[in-house]
Amino acid sequence: MVKKPLVVAVSAACLNLSVIAAANAAGFIEDSKATLSLRNFYYNSDNRNEASYAARNPSKVEEWGQGFLLNYQSGFTQGTVGFGVDAIGMLGLRLDGSGHAGRATNSNQPGTMFPRETDNSSVDEFSSVGATAKMKISETELRYGTLMPKLPVVVFNDGRLLPQTYQGTQITSKDIKDVTLTAGQLERAKNRNSTDEDDLSIAGSNGAQSAALRRNSDHFRFVGADYKVTKDLTLQYYFGQLEDFYNQHFLGLTHAVKLGDGTFKTDLRYFNSKGDGNNKDADTQAALYGASGYFGGTRTRGEVDNRLYSGLFTYSIYGHTLGLGYQSTSGNSNFPYLNENGGASTYTITDIQINNFTRSGEDTWQARYSYDFGQLGVKGLTAGVIYQRGDNIRTSAGSDFMEWERDLTVSYVIPEGQLKGLGFTWRNAMLRTDLPAATQRDQDENRLIVSYTLPLL
Questions:
Q1: Furthest C-alpha separation in the chain
Q2: What is the mean pLDDT of residues 108-117?
Q3: What phi, psi does 362 have (nearest 5°)?
């Protein structure tokens, strides 16, 4: 008679625990999402002038591949503290069969789109996986593992077959009304053309130098805030520090206002970058932890010292978007950013198809125009052109160099039907410069991209 109530109590407790566990897991499972993204990418770059420089960078680079990206994002378990996990799997297959790696023999640089074999040819395939653990309390989310940040002080690169990823920790909070707070630390990077995780670095100390002179860091710390003053006005402040290389402050303002039947947008950005740790030490700066830029005489590397400010103003009306921009850099070094020598992006208005126009002393004017042909009844078709010219570039070889680039993009995304979302893009770019060829060669470049994302969950 005594055992029966005990059995009932234990059974009831187990049932309650099962119900609670199922309820907590409901958000984890029911809010899960999974997609498979396919990207077919053809890349053709024709490097001109100074054939002698081809020992490091061949005159013709041509690669074609198929990329697969499986992206899984769970929901959060229910309760005060929610837990979840994300996972990403990537596979790149070479289709061209040419073996063109984009770099010649005796170069320590990676291929343009694929990792390289020991004989410098492209591999037939490469793949990687990543996982991210996440935790959420109210409107604050902590993520640890594989990250793809898109912040003013660090931007992941997605300009080839597969995207670049980082390893680290990031916390984002929206508990304060109209304010988003972000902080974190990155430790390693997996480049868009690699399966290896590398330490972090900048141009001047990365893999472009001989192995004996390469220097890296395993700590990039960042913190920032986005304040939405009104629905049309946002203010930003961010700070980034790559240990032993640089400290960087960023201020930003974006604003949109109705003007007639169109919308006028303002985008203002300011970066202030200074050396940190070994980069400031004269004994290690020039030969080891140096940044690229202009340091007088024949010095090609030195202390980070850069101020960059820019403004981009665009007006959109009836499918037309016209933009004018200006960017200026000052200081001895080039603009510093995370660069492991496998392809990098910057949060600058001048970071376009080939170059980012952020050299020491460079002043850049930009004009852009795009049109949405949906206004003419051709839904899904868009086209645009960007032209920019940079002057007053300073390098160890001298000053007052110039460069200009023209980019043309035509894109069509099927708007409806069974193939809805299937996209076709052609990107053509032309770069011309009077910089020494060992610094930058003239280039003509074409990219043909077919992309499609298939929802799985």
A1: 98
A2: 74
A3: -75, 130
Residue type, 168: G
DSSP 8-state class, residue 335 = P
**Other Cβ atoms within 10 Å of 276 Cβ, number:** 20
Query: What Rg, from alpha-carbon coordinates, does the chain have?
Result: 25
Torsion region of 277: left, alpha or beta (phi above 0 gives left; psi -120 to 50 gives alpha): left
47 pLDDT tier (thresholds 50, 70, 90):
confident
The DSSP result for 149-196, as a single string, is -EETTEE---SSSS--EEEEEEEEE--STTEEEEEEEEEEEE-TT-SS
Backbone angles phi, psi at 305, to 5 degrees: -160, 95
438-454 residue pLDDT tens: 778 899 999 999 999 99
| Whole-number pLDDT of residue 50 | 60
Asked if residue 323 has pLDDT above 60, the reply is yes
Q: Are 312 and 367 in contact (CB under 8 A)?
A: no
DSSP state string for 110-142 = PPSSS-B-TTSPBPSEEEEEEEEEEEEETTEEE
Tokens of 270: 């300011």
The pLDDT tens digits of the residues spanning 284-309 come to 777 789 898 888 767 778 899 999 99
Q: Give the residue among 218, 145, 140, 217 at the shortest CA–CA distance from 182.
A: 140
Rounded average pLDDT over 148-165: 96
Residue 22: both structure tokens together: 């199922």
Please choose, from the candidates 312, 405, 403, the residue with its C-alpha nearest in 3D space to the C-alpha of residue 360: 403
Spatial distance between the Cα atoms of 166 and 146, rounded to a whole number of angstroms: 6
* pTM for this predicted structure: 0.89
**What confidence tens digit (pLDDT) does each residue in 241-267 have?**
999 999 999 999 999 999 999 999 999
Residue 449 and residue 424: Cα distance in Å, rounded?
6
In the numeric block, the tokens 């140096």 are attached to 290
Percent of the chain residues topping a pLDDT of 70: 87
The secondary structure element, H or E, covering residue 87 is strand 81-94
Q: Which DSSP helix (H) or strand (E) runs through 29?
A: helix 3-30
Cα-based distances in Å from 187 to 150, 153, 300: 16, 15, 27
The three-state (H, E, C) secondary structure of 40-66, written as one string:
EEEEEEEECCCHHHHHCCCCEEEEEEE
Burial 32-58 (b: 16+ CB within 10 A, else e): beeeebebbbbbbbebeeeeebeeebb
Query: Which residues 6+ apart lie within 8 Å of 207 measured at CB?
Result: 108, 109, 110, 201, 214, 340, 341, 342
**Alpha-carbon distances, residue 329 vs 153, 235, 338 (angstroms):** 16, 22, 18
- Amino acid sitting at position 177: K
Which has more pLDDT, 313 or 457? 313
